[in-house]
């Protein structure tokens, strides 16, 4: 199939939206918004305002579910409001994620340092079976050592604490408490995966998880969420690539019991939506010995989504429950209340 779409100036694109039924009350403000955000990016927020295709015209293979026409009552102001809400929500999530990242670095460094200051370089201080598993080039341990080498080389150019060690102790590995500060957040899951089970369990339990496996999965999910927020990508109506499927015995207490299974929300792909990611983050921060009030900040911001636009069936088109995986009555749950 040939791609036939052509470049259009912003005023032409705005005219096209009006022709398709999207109400524009302030043309100058709409053009300014398209200049700041971009027509393509704004499409993610406009999408939920478009009419559904008749059943016979839906094409799941090509992801064609909606018409180019907009629902009655849909306005450009709705698009602006959604984008602003989403942007503020991403900043709130990033605040919690940065706090979590610092705590995870400290927990991993402490658990490994108790074995040896260079435990990250010694297979006998790690899970030997996991270390010897094949990777793209060699073993997982060999790949990990290349990751360490690259992180240290990069950090030595900007961080005095790394440069000092490399210059003063050239024959000794950078200690684990320094390495964990040099690693990117995205590399921490690889180190966690190589830890001995008892050490990994110690870290997991610091964040309310009884077993390393589900915590390791959540750790990778937090990396994905952080990248999404840090790069200014959309949270609203997004299905993340990783899904979280929890069992009751995997976490301490009952705060996450409501997300066990797949019927806790009306959203499609419930285990890949923002809610379950945010619920896991809130749970881990609250479970940590330092505690946290982040769940209250998240709750306050999330409740600000209030676009009352009924669809053909009378159900509100835009909502936390339909688009982001929130369960009915979520704000009253113990996870968000205390």
Plain-language structure description:
- Helix content is 51%, strand content 4%.
- The protein has helices at residues 10-19, 27-37, 39-46, 76-113, 128-131, 140-156, 160-168, 176-182, 188-194, 197-206, 212-230, 274-287, 294-302, 320-323, 334-337, and strands at 50-52, 66-70, 134-135, 138-139.
- Helix 4 (76-113) runs parallel beside helix 12 (274-287).
Q: Give me the side-by-side strand order of the main sheet.
A: 1-2
Oligomer: single chain
Anisotropy-based shape: globular
Count, helices? 15
pLDDT averaged residue by residue: 93
Which percent bin holds the helix content?
40-55%
Structural class: mainly alpha
What percentage of the residues does DSSP assign to strands (E)? under 5%
Distance between the termini: 55 Å
Q: How many runs of DSSP E, i.e. beta strands?
A: 4
Count of distinct structural domains: 2
Detail the poorly predicted runs.
none
Radius of gyration: 24 Å
């Amino acid at each position: 199939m040939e791609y036939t779409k052509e470049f259009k100036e912003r005023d032409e694109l705005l005219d096209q939206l009006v022709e398709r039924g999207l109400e524009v009350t302030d043309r100058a403000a709409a053009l300014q918004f398209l200049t700041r955000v971009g027509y393509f990016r704004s499409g993610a927020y406009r999408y939920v305002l478009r009419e559904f295709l008749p059943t016979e015209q839906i094409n799941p293979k090509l992801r064609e579910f909606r018409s180019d026409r907009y629902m009655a009552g849909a306005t450009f102001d709705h698009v602006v409001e959604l984008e602003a809400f989403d942007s503020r929500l991403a900043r709130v999530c990033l605040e919690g994620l940065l706090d979590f990242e610092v705590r995870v670095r400290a927990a991993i460094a402490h658990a490994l340092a108790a074995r040896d200051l260079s435990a990250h370089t010694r297979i006998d201080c790690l899970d030997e079976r996991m270390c010897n598993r094949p990777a793209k080039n060699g073993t997982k341990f060999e790949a990990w050592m290349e990751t360490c080498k690259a992180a240290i080389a990069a950090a030595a150019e900007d961080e005095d604490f790394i440069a000092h060690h490399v210059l003063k102790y050239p024959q000794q590995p950078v200690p684990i408490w320094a390495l964990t500060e040099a690693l990117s957040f995205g590399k921490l899951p690889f180190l966690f995966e190589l830890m001995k089970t008892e050490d990994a369990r110690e870290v997991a339990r610091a964040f309310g998880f009884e077993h390393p496996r589900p915590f390791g999965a959540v750790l990778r999910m937090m990396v994905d969420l952080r990248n999404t927020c840090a790069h200014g990508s959309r949270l609203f109506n997004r299905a993340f690539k990783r899904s979280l499927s929890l069992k009751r015995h995997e976490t301490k207490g009952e705060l996450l019991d409501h997300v066990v299974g797949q019927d806790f929300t009306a959203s499609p792909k419930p285990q890949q939506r923002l809610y379950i990611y945010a619920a896991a983050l809130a749970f881990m921060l609250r479970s940590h010995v330092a505690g946290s009030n982040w769940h209250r900040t998240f709750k306050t911001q999330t409740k600000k989504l209030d676009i009352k636009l009924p669809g053909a069936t009378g159900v509100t088109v835009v909502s936390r429950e339909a688009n982001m995986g929130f369960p009915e009555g979520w704000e009253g749950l113990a996870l968000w209340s205390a």
